[in-house]
Amino acid sequence: MATAPETDGRRTAAAARRRAREKEIIAATRGLFDERGVRDAQIEDIAKAVGINRAIVYRHFTGKEELFALTLVEYLEELRVALARAVEGAADPAQQLRAVVTAFVDYGVSHPAFVDCAQTIMRRTGPDLLDEISESALFRLGRGISGCLSLLTQVLEDGVEAGEFRVADPVLLANTLYASGLGALQLARVGILVKEVAPGIPTVGAISPDQVRDYLVASALALATR
Length: 226
Fold this sequence. Notes:
The chain has two domains: 12-60, Orthogonal Bundle (Arc Repressor Mutant, subunit A), CATH 1.10.10; 64-225, Tetracycline Repressor, domain 2. The chain contains ten helices and two strands; from the N terminus they run αααααααααββα. The protein has helices spanning 6-36, 43-50, 54-60, 64-88, 93-110, 112-122, 126-132, 135-161, 170-190, 209-225, and strands at residues 192-198, 201-206. Strands 1-2 form a two-stranded antiparallel ribbon. Strand 1 and strand 2 (201-206) form a beta hairpin. Helix 4 (64-88) runs parallel beside helix 8 (135-161). The N and C termini lie far apart (69 Å).
């Protein structure tokens, strides 16, 4: 019986070690994001948390943008699970839409670094991302985002089929709700509304995460049924 070449075994072991190290680095990045926020997470700190030097980080990732993108994938996988559970617990499309938006807000409020990380990536143009992130990493990021959006899109499509929703382009609406939801989550974190008490005279008021959640739910339902 033929045996596999010894070099194949070494390559397999090396690939496994590489994947394990990548997971360590991403886990350390996620830990720093959750502890300090995205802005204060530096490559040097990430490397120190793993017990390596920064040069090794760059052996595994094309740069900071790619590392941040793959850390966002970790958040998105958790979010997808939360959204799927929300859909399963609701009886009809309207309740499902309400539950999905609620789950999205609850996750974002509980994981502010997810919001920062997602907004950081969204501020880059498509060509910039293609220049700074490898194709494999970009594919994983796209799969993470689409995994969440597909759940929302399916809810909208089911609502249209049931005659409850009037949505011409469920994919576009799902993407719009995701993007606007990230902005609203930032508002929930700041907790401040700016308004005029008189022409040219600004003032601030308070807004709670619950108010933001209720507004996003009402907006999603209004957009789906208009």
